[in-house]
Amino acid sequence: MTEPNQSVCFVAPFGLRQKTTIWARTLPLAQRLVAHGWSVSILIPPWDSPQDSGRHWEEQGVRLANVALEHGMLAVLHRLLHEIDRVRPAIVHIVKPRAYAGLVQWWLWWRRKNSARAGPLLLLDSDDWEQAWAPVNHYPPLLARFLAWQEEWGIRHADGITAASRWLVERIQRAAPHIPRLYLPNGVTAPARASVHWQAPAQRNVLYFSRFVEVTPAWLAHFTQALHVAAPGVRLRIVGTPVQPGLEADYRRAVAAAAAAGAAPVDWLGYVQGSDLEAIYRSSACAIFPAEAVPLQQAKCSVRLATTLLAGMPVVASAVGEQTAYGAEGAARLVPAGATPHTFAAAVASILAAPAEQAALSRRAHAHLLQHYDWALLAAQLNVFYRQLQEAGRTNR
After folding, report:
1. Beta pairing, strands 121-126 & 205-209
2. What backbone torsions phi and psi does residue 116 show, to the nearest 5 degrees?
3. Using CA atoms, how far apart are residues 221 and 231, in angstroms rounded to an integer?
4. Model confidence over 335-371: pLDDT tens digits?
């Protein structure tokens, strides 16, 4: 009896260096699929990291193949398709239904439809609602329409879909109710030490990881004023870079104007290396994750929130999208969606005034993340999903 083909090829829309999805989601999943007997590769068009053009390497059993970038878009697409034909995977898992990855899905679907060959199963991984980014990224109208078409077409023409948030699962269910779906949030890697031991720092710093799209500049400005009143002497430390140049300037102007009337001082720390995060955590009493209840925030599944909770950091977060799930079971102090800056600041102040609650949040957060979001658990669910789809495919032949 012939052994079933247990090879899967993830097709990325971009490289590993600048954007988060591949190194923080796709690669950890791929590495843990190897333990379930899968031969796994990640195929990358590294247009955003051209230094990787043509480079191939292996990480923990996963082959990463960066195709060469020479001679333009069609040549890059041809190389991606040629590599898939060379590997002949049982499953092609498209990472985001856009750009090169979306074009690969389109081509493979049409070839399978018009060929006697069965071709690989075509799965789609959705970790964001791409259309919500069009106004943020200032896409020209034609590009915005094309990317929206890719997203909708990709959802309707997949053999199965993995989605990183419940909002995405529900949106996909409405668009394509007949297609199998798996809720597959972003996970965490269990640390070397089994537990954390939280100690309240001497400084009363509040940490805010931001891409300058979670709340409006006005909301942040009012929050600094409300925090100053609710918790005098507290500093707000903002870590992160804007998703688009110029966005940060709007926030700085709003916060500077608020400071004239009295507001918590703000440190703008910008991009921080991963090796420096532990020191920032140790000098912060809690972290905040405010978010508006809009599709951009409801659809995403924040890797930064997951890793902050895993580190045992006390967190105050808006109950929006996947933040509600990450903060469940007392893992975070959840503030109702749509809460005013004053309500949010009051929740932060109450945490700052209660070191015992900070310690309890720390313990519950660490345990909750490991119990529900360990990548090994999520990869096991994906393995079952793959095999169910393969069995369904064999039954329907």
Report:
1. unpaired
2. -75, -20
3. 15
4. 999 999 999 999 999 999 999 999 999 999 999 999 9
Q: What is the CA radius of gyration of the chain?
A: 22
Helices (H), the chain: 21, 27-33, 73-87, 99-113, 134-137, 141-156, 166-175, 217-230, 247-259, 277-282, 295-299, 303-310, 322-326, 341-352, 355-373, 375-395
For β-strands 56-59 and 121-126, DSSP reports them as: unpaired
pLDDT digits (tens, 9 = 90+) for 97-148: 888 999 999 999 999 988 867 789 999 999 999 899 999 888 999 999 999 9
Q: Say how far apart CA 221 and CA 188 lie, in whole Å.
A: 32
**Contacts of residue 47, Cβ cutoff 8 Å, sequence gap at least 6:** 14, 15, 69, 76, 100
Q: Are 58 and 27 in contact (CB under 8 A)?
A: no
Candidates 47, 42, 56; CA nearest to 14 is: 47
Backbone dihedral angles phi then psi of residue 348, each to the nearest 5 degrees: -65, -45
